[in-house]
Amino acid sequence: MLPAKEWPPRMSFDAIRIPLYLSWADPHSALLAPWKAWMQSYPRLQTPAWINVSTNEVAPWYMAGGLLAVRDLTLGEPQEAPQIDDKDDYYSASLKLLVWLAKQDQR
């Protein structure tokens, strides 16, 4: 499988839903292995916001908001009720809420 030619070959906002939905369906899915390996290779607050899957170049800024919530869910780290504030745009807030719903389903 190759990245689509129409977009940059990055794992970021557009692909972060893959580990979200996999984690939601089965937090122990073997399909999460590459996501977990990549996310675990960085300290929580220093996980790059994206990685170029062709070159391994990473973003010069870190995950925050909804991206960080998906990271935490994927790695099975504790989740609190979502805190949505002015720093969260629509997509970040939506990811936080989806992560919260996933955790509710896993109880």
TrEMBL record:
Annotated Pfam families: Glyco_hydro_8 (PF01270)
Reaction(s) the record says it catalyses: Endohydrolysis of (1->4)-beta-D-glucosidic linkages in cellulose, lichenin and cereal beta-D-glucans
Any Gene Ontology biological process: cellulose catabolic process
UniProt cross-references to InterPro entries, sorted A to Z: 6-hairpin_glycosidase_sf, 6hp_glycosidase-like_sf, Glyco_hydro_8
EC number from the UniProt entry: 3.2.1.4
Keywords: Carbohydrate metabolism, Cellulose degradation, Glycosidase, Hydrolase, Polysaccharide degradation
Domain of life: Bacteria
Gene Ontology MF terms in the entry: cellulase activity
Keyword Hydrolase recorded: yes
Protein family according to the UniProt entry: Belongs to the glycosyl hydrolase 8 (cellulase D) family.
Protein name (Swiss-Prot/TrEMBL): cellulase
Taxonomic placement: Bacteria, Pseudomonadati, Pseudomonadota, Gammaproteobacteria, Enterobacterales
